[in-house]
Amino acid sequence: MKKNLLKLTPLIMFLCGNILFADEIVKKDTGEVLQGQFIEIKTNEYYRIKTADGKVYQIPWENTHYVKFEEIPQEIKIFKQTIPHSLSSPEYDSKKIENEYKKAKDQSFLKMTIDMGGKQKISGEGLSNSADINTAFSFSFEFMFPSDMRNKLGIGVTYQFPRSIKDSEGDFNFVPLYAFLKMPLGNENDLSGYFLGHLGYNFFMGDDDYKLIGDLSGGLYYGAGIGFQSQNILFEFLYSVNNGSYKVLDYNFDVKYSKIGLSIGFIF
């Protein structure tokens, strides 16, 4: 009986090992299959897996053909962050894991925008005047906080290159500091398409030909639009409004600059 049990021991250990270590990775170059438990993943660099015999293997990201998770633990180290638990579907390849990781990590954006269809309205003291604004460019930097929630939050700053009123002298520009919200267009936690909202405060500046003898001060900034994200590039369509004030002598005027912006951005 003892001898039979001894003979069965390797089989029992093998079966237990396969139950306890059910994660799987297939190497692209040799087709070798490793079964075990993932202990670390560094996106775009490597997977680290511990097999049933206690050995630890590090597989380069580019040499990974196929990955299978039996069950995703609550925490797998990725740049000291966490893969979202929603990853616990049975099978994921490297690209899917990378995409899920990108959703959970913080992201930074550099955007270039062309501002078109601009209108400036000045009102106050019983007076009101509107004028067309020439097309101009803006440059933005944004930071989106890490989250595996459906809606994403972040902060940003935009520098508007100086622009002018049509057929007039003088240039002006705003510099908004804002918070933004991105809400996916679909039902899943996927920012390939999203609604976009901006809210913040902007500084208001102008040259001497624009200000004349007056002073400028900033005000409320807001905007709404839609965006589309693909890999490391995004495109956005945003209607936004910059508010400020113009004071000359003892008179105060409200300044409202509205426009439509088309942006291309790079994610890093």
Describe this structure in words.
Helices cover 13% and strands 59% of the residues. The protein is mainly β. It folds into two domains: 2-104, no CATH class; 107-267, Porin. It has an eight-stranded antiparallel beta barrel. A six-stranded antiparallel sheet has the order 4-3-2-1-5-8. A two-stranded antiparallel sheet has the order 6-7. β14 (171-184) and β15 (193-206) form a beta hairpin. The N and C termini lie far apart (63 Å).
| Alpha carbon gyration radius | 28 Å
Question: What is the helix tally?
Answer: 3
CATH class of the largest domain: Mainly Beta
Spans with pLDDT under 50 lasting ≥5 residues? 8-19, 72-92
Strand order of the largest sheet: 9-11-12-14-15-17-18-19
Query: Architecture of the largest domain in CATH?
Result: Beta Barrel
Report the mean per-residue pLDDT as an integer: 81
What's the overall geometry? rod-shaped
Task: Give the helix proportion (percent range).
Answer: 10-25%
Structural class: mainly beta
Strand coverage percent? over 45%
Determine the N-to-C terminus distance.
63 Å
Biggest β-sheet: count, sense, barrel?
A: 8 strands, antiparallel, barrel
CATH topology of the largest domain: Porin
What is the domain total for the residues? 2
